[in-house]
Amino acid sequence: MSMLTDSTELPASTGTIKVVLVDDQALFRAGIRMVVSSQRDLEFVGEAGDGQEGVEVVARTKPDVVLMDIRMPVMDGIAATAAILEQADRERRRAPRILVLTTFDLDEAATRAIRGGASGFVLKDSDPEFLLAAIRTVHAGTSVIAASATRELFEHFDGRSSGAKQVPEAFHSLTTRERDIFQSAARGLSNSEIASLEYLSEATVKTHISRILAKLSLRDRVQLVVYAYEHGLTS
């Protein structure tokens, strides 16, 4: 499975996107810093070599997107992701989008990081163009990064569980239209793809997605995918 076979929707420019990188390999950090800094719409604001230092850098710089390695000394990326999101909740500010960096596709640790609030995952050996597109996409929140890879990740690790799953009461509060859009979003379709499927404008789809996330108390679209798999709501 290739992460690069999925088209990634590039959002319109909305100003400079501040990026922090957390990874224990200095050479890798140097390369990513150069790639990010070469873009006019991206600003590299900080880096860290372990999860604990990453939490501190994020608190100080308040980035829009964090690139987070999973396996690091002192504190791993899963714990660091949870700490960053908890810190944002305590301070009642918008949490950064967290992109998990992993070395292979079917990484159970990536699944756990996404369950913990990460907004997607990217392979470390992805092309620079894909990484840049992923940063922009996760910041815009208009689609799921590498949708088929994300679905395969959850199918692989969630598909082994058996038995009927209870549908949460909150899901029943969705209108028929919202349930249709929920199903499309759970499959990883972008706003433009859902708009075409449902014969709606992208603005209307965006409004519906926002209402769905609010009703289900979800942070973003990838958490919607997690929700669908956890509760057996995938079609």
UniProtKB/TrEMBL annotation:
Sorted UniProt keywords: DNA-binding, Phosphoprotein, Transcription, Transcription regulation
Location of the HTH luxR-type domain: 167-232
Taxonomic source organism: Frondihabitans peucedani
Residues with the 4-aspartylphosphate modification: D69
Keyword Phosphoprotein in annotation: yes
Response regulatory domain sequence ranges: 18-139
Protein name in UniProt: Response regulator transcription factor
